[in-house]
Amino acid sequence: MKKLLLLGGSRYLVPVIREAKALGCHTITCDYLPHNYAHQISDEYHNVSITDMEATLNLARELKVDGVMSFACDPGVITAAYVAEQLGLPNVGPYESVAILQDKGRFRAFLRDNGFTVPGSRSFDDIGAALREAESFSYPLIVKPVDNAGSKGVRRVNGPEELEQAIRYALSFTRCGRFILEDFIEKEGFSSDTDCFSVDGELKFVSFNNQYFDSKASNPYAPDGYTWPSTIPAVQQKELRNELQRLLHLLKMRTSVYNVEVRLGKDGKAYLMEVSPRGGGNRLSEMLEYTTGTRLIHNAVRAALGMPVEEMHDPVYHGHWSIVMLHASQNGAFRNLWIAEDAKPSVVEEDLWVQPGTPVEAFAGASNAIGSLVLNWSTEEERDTRMADVSSWVRVITESGADA
């Protein structure tokens, strides 16, 4: 029986564990949070921090695992690549390449040095240096930690008087003590955040979607909904696909699922914003199985174990799909979920993670979600109209009576 070491323990690992078990694999989860949900369904759990590469390597060596994987878990991606490289296990790509992709400062520099379209940016580890050199930037700009995902620690800065506070906020979310200042790219239409897949470095599946945000949330840059297919024009989709392929070739990436964020700017340019060799959070790979039938999670598990993957091709979408990440507008205790009667026929899956009375927090990122709704709308127009005003047909009711 093959052994698969999975880094992290969030609910987003559940479908990965199920796929691995269906392949007859022994599943092992690890992190420093023993009460995380995925540990309840894995075959084995170890209390080892996934950011401690040497400790994780020692665990993998001791357990004689056949594969290591970090899915929808950004902090474990570099560790998984390191462990796989040290033990000669199947790997998504060279450790150094993964380290570039996972560091926003290094990633932007790599893109710039290799002729990609990239926002102006610079990373710092000193607040004073950043404040002195910020004069070279035009406002608005974005401040974010170089080593965090899910829009944690991200703030838009509209003027110099806001900069220091935004930097200190970003630093409160970084493990390495570094942050990045970046030109704010005014987007044209919707940005996209969805999953792709390469086999031996060649892109086999590239998807795009429309990404939605709750402008009333405490973090307006945390996505809370997605729709497929994307409205990005075909010409730009082709350009982005070609640039993504060029990036993977330059970095000598291998077989992996990727979470890829892109946007079109009002400047007419198409930008690769983030490329991470892992499945995305917010159930993105699961949604792509709903919308296209392509089993990205199944193939990611097979790849991590060194098994051949199923044949894949670029997506053909079946219907007008969306997912809404359920969340509260303020701290409180969950009371119930309200869904308008005329929206219920479109609900394919309601996945609620809390019970009445469970404490919930205001939405600041993916970790504050309390469940999800998968929806298949009858028409594109209905989908887009509904997603433009989610709070009119679905609300999380808390004990105070506030709704999201």
Walk me through what this model shows.
- The protein folds into three domains: 3-89, Rossmann fold (3-Layer(aba) Sandwich); 120-183, ATP-grasp fold, A domain (Dna Ligase, domain 1, 2-Layer Sandwich); 192-398, 2-Layer Sandwich (D-amino Acid Aminotransferase, Chain A, domain 1), CATH 3.30.470.20.
- With 404 residues, the chain is α+β, with helices and mostly antiparallel strands.
- Helix content is 26%, strand content 27%.
- The termini are far apart.
- The strands form five sheets. The chain has a five-stranded antiparallel β-sheet with strand order 11-12-15-19-17. A four-stranded parallel β-sheet has the order 3-2-1-4.
- The chain has helices at residues 14-22, 53-63, 77-87, 95-101, 104-113, 127-133, 163-171, 234-250, 284-292, 296-304, 380-387, and strands spanning 3-7, 26-31, 44-47, 67-69, 121-124, 141-145, 155-157, 179-183, 192-199, 202-205, 210-213, 223-228, 256-264, 270-276, 320-326, 332-339, 347-352, 359-360, 371-377, 394-398.
